[in-house]
UniProtKB/TrEMBL annotation:
Coiled coil: none annotated. This is Sulfide:quinone oxidoreductase. Residues 2-110 form the Beta-lactamase hydrolase-like protein phosphatase-like domain. It comes from Alloyangia pacifica. One of its GO terms (molecular function) is hydrolase activity.
Length: 557
């Protein structure tokens, strides 16, 4: 007997026998639904036998037979109605369990998000790809797909999506490109650290999406619900279908605030803030200016996260303000890092450690934030040091800057495009999908082992544009991504440690050492971050002008 739990209320199973029913009751199930028609297989017990055994075991049993491969809308409605009537948890069965899982998926489509349904069935071992359009359509069979078709479809209108659309349009002006994104506003997220440090005004980091979409690119203002890569189709919310010849996937990642108990309820008050949100970065600066004594915590979750240096950038700029205003001796700064090192590339660590000393910050490694009690101003951390039993510690705070846990977006994690960890599965050099030759990915959502930064996306966009253009011309990939990422670590107001590195931690400086030595804090790097990079972002990167971003060519071996 192979019982597969889908949710706490429902499980699916392959064909059961009358002797299995007692075991099902012992497992805590209170009702059984049979979705297999009597007589479908020569070795199958009929429903009357199962019903009699269920009655003897004190279980309810219902018969909703469905022909294999022919699940009708009415069947799903009947299944949902029966689920509501029966005591739970319920075990539904058919020949393999797939019909039962399909019926559950369609019956819940009107009340649960498609990604949640797909995640639950995927975890149970059932592939709902064949009914994904019906799930997105509220469980009903679409009557009109209303297909639109484009040469290239780009999913995501963040830094990566707009940059790659512009770069590709510059190479192939006649391409029919569609960009899918439901957002009204586009944000320059690297600027939020500076907002939290009182350097930038928040409004300078936001522009309307419509003002940034490259000329000639169709903007479809809608969210993606699912992918059908075998049919070259993207399913939008509302079950509209967009077809493509080639697909570029770059929707960014998801900030999983809810993973920390109590965090959502206290964000923006009780001294809890984060530069990872546009509306909260000003609160960071408000807290920093207002704190005259007490304990300030800065947290960093397990990798991967976008801009791995951002949690400590907030620490440095805050510490610098307290140093300059003379209150630092009365403030205890603690860096609560789920990882085991200050920074992943060792060449930059000595410079950073000197500032940790300057600000008298305490480094607490292997400390992962798991809960926050905002009104009590207490934070709980799971401490999981190597070769030691995990423990929990609770720390009082007067101010806490939180970097949230981060995962791939829900609709990506449950899609055929994802690897086991939920990220889009690409070749780290060409950024082409490992299973689907007409799909590419870039930005924070893909699984190449690079730092997830805007600077990385700036380098990736030309690589993908070159390789998509080459593919259109019938050629093999012509450009390789070397893993470049940049993290301008704002160690004090007016100085930055400009970390630039690629795969394996290889240093990849953009400037000669006499101009900017990235391993040391420099004024030149601060001027780059403050005055040069924002206009480069808005006026070059997002317009397909690849300043200092020429792709590396593929070389014959």
């Amino acid at each position: 007997m192979d019982i597969r739990k889908i949710t706490d209320d429902i499980a699916a199973s392959a064909q059961i026998t009358a002797t299995d029913v007692a075991l099902i009751a012992e497992a805590g199930y209170r009702a059984i639904i049979c979705n297999r028609p009597d007589g479908e297989g020569a070795d199958q017990p009929n429903f009357e036998e199962i019903e009699a055994a269920a009655k003897q075991a004190g279980l309810e049993a219902r018969y909703i037979p469905v022909v294999s491969g022919k699940v009708q809308d009415a069947d799903a409605v009947a299944f949902g109605k029966t689920l509501r009537e029966l005591p739970g948890p319920v075990l539904a069965y058919c020949r393999s369990g797939t019909r039962s899982a399909t019926l559950w998926s369609l019956s819940q489509a009107g009340s649960l998000p498609p990604a949640q349904i797909l995640a639950a069935t995927k975890q149970a071992g059932y592939d709902m790809a064949g009914v994904v359009r019906r799930i997105v359509n509220g469980g009903k069979t679409p009557t009109d797909t209303g297909d639109a078709r484009f040469d290239v479809v780009v999913v995501g209108g963040g830094a990566a999506g707009i940059a790659v659309s512009a770069s590709l349009k510059a190479r192939k002006p006649d391409l029919n490109i569609a960009l899918l994104d439901p957002a009204d506003i586009h944000y320059y997220q690297p600027g939020w650290t500076m907002v939290g440090g009182g350097v930038f005004e928040p409004q300078t980091t936001a522009r309307t999406m419509g003002s940034l979409i490259p000329r000639g690119v169709h903007w479809i203002k809608a969210a993606v619900a699912a992918f059908e890569p075998e049919d070259n189709a993207v399913i939008l919310d509302g079950c509209r279908v967009v077809k493509y010849d080639r697909l570029i996937v770059c929707p960014g990642l998801k900030l999983d605030w809810h993973r920390v108990e109590g965090l959502v309820e206290t964000l923006g008050k009780n001294g809890v803030t984060s530069n990872y949100r546009y509306d909260l970065a000003p609160y960071t600066w408000e807290l920093v200016k207002g704190l005259k004594e007490g304990r300030a915590l800065f947290t960093q979750p397990p990798m991967p996260i976008k801009c791995a240096g951002a949690p400590q950038k907030a620490l440095y700029l805050s510490g610098d303000h307290w140093f300059r205003t003379g209150v630092l001796p009365r403030i205890d700064i603690e860096f609560m890092n789920a990882g085991g090192v200050l920074f992943g590339v060792k060449d930059y660590v000595p410079a950073l450690e000197s500032y940790i000393e300057k600000y008298r910050a305490k480094l607490n490694f292997f400390h992962n934030l798991v809960a926050v009690d905002g009104p009590a101003r207490k934070a709980t951390f799971k401490v999981a040091k190597p070769d030691a039993e995990a423990t929990e510690v609770t720390v009082d705070f007067d101010m806490m800057h939180v970097c949230p846990p981060q995962v791939a977006p829900d609709f990506i994690r449950v899609s055929p495009l994802a690897d086991a960890a939920g990220w889009v599965d690409v070749d780290q050099g060409t950024l082409r999908h490992k299973s689907y030759d007409n799909i590419w990915s870039l930005g924070d959502v893909m699984n190449a082992p690079n730092a997830k930064t805007a600077a990385a996306a700036r380098m990736q966009a030309p690589v993908v544009a070159e390789n998509v253009a080459a593919d259109i011309d019938g050629k093999a990939p012509v450009a390789l991504y070397n893993g470049y990422g940049s993290c301008p670590l704002t160690v004090e107001r007016g100085k930055i440690v400009l970390a630039e590195f690629g795969y394996g931690g290889a240093l990849l400086p953009s400037f000669p050492k006499w101009l900017i030595d990235g391993t040391k804090p420099t004024r030149a790097a601060w001027l780059l971050k403050e005055q040069i990079l924002p206009p480069v972002y808005w006026k070059a990167m997002l317009r397909g002008k690849e300043w200092m971003a020429k792709p590396e060519p593929v070389t014959a071996v």
